[in-house]
Amino acid sequence: MIRKEFELVEMGINAVLSGAIIAEESNSAAVINRKGNLRDVVTEADLEINKVLREKLIEKGWDVISEESPLPSRLQNNYWVIDPIDGTANFANGIPYYAVSVGWLKEGQPSLGFVCAPALNEFYATLSSKTSYLNGKAINHVHEISQNALVAASFAAKAGSSQYLLFQEVNESTRGCLRTGSAALNLCWTASNRFQACFGLGAKVWDVAAGLALNIAAGSRVEIFSYPDNVTIDYCVGSKGVVSDIIIRAKSHGLWREIS
Amino acid sequence: MKSQILIVGAGAIGRGYLPWIIDLSHHDLIFIDSNIDIVRKLQAKNSYMTYRVCGEEYEQIEVPVFRAYLTEEFDFKKHQNLTACFFSVGPRNVAQAATCLVGTDIPVIICENDPESTTHAARILGHKRVYFAVPDVITSNTAPETLITLDPLAVVTEQGEFFLEEGPLGLRGKFNFVPRDELIRVQWTPKLYLHNTPHSIAAYLGALIGENYVHEAMKHQAISRIVEGSMMEMLQALKIQWDIPHSFLDWYANKELERFRCELLYDPISRVAREPLRKLEKHGRLLGAAQMCLSLGVLPQNIIKGIMGALLFKSEKDPDRYLSIMRDAMGTKAFNRYILGLRPDEPLDLMLRLQNFDVEPIVQELLSS
Predict the structure, then answer these.
(1) For position B365, what pLDDT does the model report?
(2) Which of A142, A129, A131, A130 is nearest to A241 (CA)?
(3) Does A153 map to a domain?
(4) Which end of chain A has a smaller Cβ tally under 10 Å, C or N?
(5) Domain match, A123 and A7 both
(6) Which pLDDT tens digit goes with each residue over B26-56?
């Protein structure tokens, strides 16, 4: 591993674990704010983790974009993307499906990813753009067919009815489609073969940057459509055949855009 | 007409030890390996030498090679007279190795240090003719320079015993067939804790001070003392925990210490210490051994030093070389929890956190003698 990449890995691991400690030790899971609708909540822990992680990464001279901070007016080519707590609604309700997520984007592409789910004792990391690990063990996505697939979906805060139709179709054409409440964990569990695919429409880059990097390194098929605002993303990730089937269904509902 | 035996994994056990116990007058050997260098040499020479320690000397046999293949080159349909297949590829590689035999139902004998690997192999092979074996032997995957000069494929083994789960196998050779339960209880358990535990500790401590072979490490008084100490800790725990005759355990422990000191074996530290993360598995030879001691009131002071050796092991060529990157980036507490799987603040976690991945005190202790 080249020195620079090692330093990035060290930074990412250090940041995500710092965030996980705060989340775990926080007595501040109470919702302190809503960001526009009933589902989009923020806790004190989100804000505290956001502050600590931003300081750690900005101190090293990098740009950081985050769910809980305003976007910088200009970005470097390479930058960190953090979600202090992905799955805040779960966290606030005492459900252990939440994670701290730290991703590294190189030339706009997810390159390194670090996700820690402290309540599940799970720590995911890419040690390079070619290797993903769960708790120190290498993970490689095993490609399955739709009939054998368990799939997970994540919805944007404002999801249209066609997204629910897609959810229903995927649920009925596979072993099931789950909503876990954490896009980051959906992606981690796809990389590590618990899910065979996951998708999200109108997701935000901080929810998924780290998980996408983990899947790229784990050999999953990764299909992404980035919106012009550079923070909104449609993604479908996992086994080749399952991803194809989901995209065909999404297109039939006018939900999947092709890069022109 | 001879029948054929497949040996998947032409390393220490496969190339060095199995030819001593398989009756070569009844069976031809077909080798399968993923190492192209070894396979091409086996194909080119059609034979190689394996040496066995006999007192102060070596005895030798020239092993005829019927065929040799890279894993991806092997097609079982070209061999109609197969009797059995031995796997000696390392527990992590069993699943991959098994794929080359899908579609056959020849018995498969798993010579790995992990009874679970028989289950993995059976699932991939789609039949239950998969048997667990315990080769109670140390076999080097190399040989001293003088022997390597004569034959680059030469390996050195000791006498050893081969214990094999009973089953309908058409094998001829020196095999000790035992029921599976007895194999696990009387052979595998002592091997795991009285052989693998102190053997790996000798290797990891030797690596810390730059030695290349286990017998060289054992010449250091401090290492020898720690290895013997870990053996005593395990012996004490096994006597409390297991219904195995104490005289057998004492004999086993003494035999092992002699093995580690054998100067003719040339047992490379890089071989014994490889894949430290596998050796640090929660229920394995290091953490599992320490946990067993702690649960029985035996303080694993020496085993802890071995665990530290494993945690500090660095080798650029090792598949687990990223261990040191994670260790340094995560710090002791998070590493123990997420990578080693220890519960925060459990006794073993606390004991390891006291050491704080600090290499200096251990190296000083090892070199002080």
Answers:
(1) 86
(2) A142
(3) yes
(4) C
(5) yes
(6) 999 999 999 999 999 999 989 999 999 998 8
CB contact under 8 A, A135 and B328: no
CA distance B42 to B155: 13
Q: Write out the residue range of the structural domain in which residue A211 sits.
A: 146-252
Q: Taking CB atoms and an 8 Å limit, are A137 and B277 in contact across chains?
A: yes
State whether A178 and A219 are in the same domain. Answer: yes
- Its ipTM equals 0.90
Does the distance separating the beta carbons of A14 and B328 come in below 8 Å?
Answer: no
Tell whether A14 is within 8 A of chain B (Cβ): yes
Distances (CA, A) of B217 to A47, B158, B214, B305: 53, 19, 5, 14
Nearest neighbour of B326 by CB, restricted to A116, A121, A136: A136
CB contact under 8 A, B334 and A136: no
Q: Give CA separation, B324 vs A6, A135, B93, B317, in Å.
A: 11, 14, 22, 13
- pTM of the full predicted structure? 0.86
In the stretch 216-255 of chain A, residues with CB closer than 8 A to chain B read: none
Q: Is A258 within the bounds of a domain?
A: no
Burial of B70 (0-12, 13-18, 19+ CB in 10 A): middle
Q: Structural domains in chain B?
A: 3-178 (3.40.50.720), 183-368 (1.10.1040.10)
Q: What's the token pair of residue B361?
A: 């005190």
